[in-house]
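Run TetR/AcrR family transcriptional regulator through structure prediction, thanks.
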Amino acid sequence: MELKASTRSATAETGSARTTRAAAKAARREQLLSVAKTLYAQHGFHGVRLDDLGKGAGISAPAVYRHFESKEAVLEELLVGISEYLNSGGDAIIARHENDAATSALDELIDFHVAFAMSEPELIRIQDRDLAALPEFSRRTVRRLQRSYVSHWAEVVARANPDWSIDAATVRVHAVFGMINSTPYQARRSSAEVVGVELRAAACAALGIA
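Sure, done. The structure for TetR/AcrR family transcriptional regulator is below.
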C-alpha cells in the first residue's frame, strides 16, 4: 500500500511539473507573438530578424525555435489567427441573432469590428503591408477567411436593406471595413471613446441603419 501511495504521489508531482512547463511554454509563445506584433508593425516583416524577436522576449534566438520554426511561422500565426477570430466571431454573432431582425445582428457586428480595429491596429498594419510575405497556402487561407467574413456581413446588410442587391451590400461592407480599419491611424490625437462612437455612427449610416 505504501508503495502504491508513493507511486501515486510521484505521478501527481510529475503531472504537475508537466502542467507548469506547458503553461510556461504557452506564456512564452504568447510573449513572442506580442513582441512580433509590435516589431512587425514598426519595422515591417522584412525589417525584423529572429534575433530581434528573441531579444524582445528576453531569450536567445536559438530558444525561439522551441516555439516557432521561423519568423514566417510567427507571421502566419498572427495573420491566420486574426482572420479566424474575425470569421468565427462574426458567424457566432449572426447565429445568435438568427431569429431576430437583421439590424440586431448588424448592430453587434459593427460593435465587434470597431472593437477589433481599436484594439488591434498593429495587426491591421501588418496585414496591409506584409500579407504577401506569407507562404502561399497561408495567404490563401487568409483570403478565404476574409471573403467568408465579408460575404456573411453582406448577407446581413442585404437583409437589413431589402432594396439593396448583394453586390451593393458587399461594396458597402468593403467601404465600411476600409473606414473602420484605417481611422484609428488617422485619428490618434482624438480620444478612443470619440473615435469609437464616431466610427460606429458612420458605419451605421453607410450600412443603412442610421
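The mean pLDDT is 90.
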